[in-house]
Amino acid sequence: MRRLGLTLVATAAVITLAGCGKSSTSPPAAGSDQAAAPAAAAPTPEQVKALQAALPAPYNAADLDNGAAKFALCSSCHTLSQGGPVMTGPNLYGILGEKAGVRAGFTFSEPMKAAGFTWDAGRLDTWITDPKVMIPGTKMTFAGLKDPKDRTDVIAYLMIQTGYKP
What is the per-residue pLDDT for 17? Predict the structure, then answer.
């Protein structure tokens, strides 16, 4: 019975990913800064601890397991790995510190292109609270994370997984 449950969960994950519009195996867009970048190996548990300790508060005390679990909601549309594919949403590797709406290889909505800000933890927190409130007219359909702790955990997880340098 447990094996059947796991098979159903795996099947549901595949179906969800297939519905994103772009295959997770599609290569990055030509001309993308991600196209030439080799995929980096996942950090070891010891490296994760060191990386998290270097993050600013409150992210240095976040629950990364919860952040990973909450990011699962995002993973049907976004990848995090360096050189990872663009899916329904852009690859998020290196997003912190980047100007909004300009990532090569992804077609942003006009409101996002016109946003004129640089992604930082505070803006990301506002964004994942409710994207449609932050930028009316965005293409992003995510309803948001209402719990501030969940947002902190997701942002810390993103910082660790996407090459953030404090």
Answer: 34
Tally of CB atoms within 10 A around 33: 16
Report the largest interatomic distance among the alpha carbons of the chain, rounded to a whole angstrom.
52
**How many CA within 13 A on the CB side of residue 23?**
3
Q: Take residue 49 and report the two structure tokens written for it.
A: 């601890």
User: Is there a contact between 92 and 114 (Cβ–Cβ < 8 Å)?
Assistant: no
**R_g over Cα of the chain:** 16
Can you give the pTM of this predicted structure? 0.76
Domains of the chain and any CATH numbers: 2-161 (1.10.760.10)
Which segments of 78-161 does DSSP mark as H helices, in order? 110-113, 121-129, 131-134, 148-161
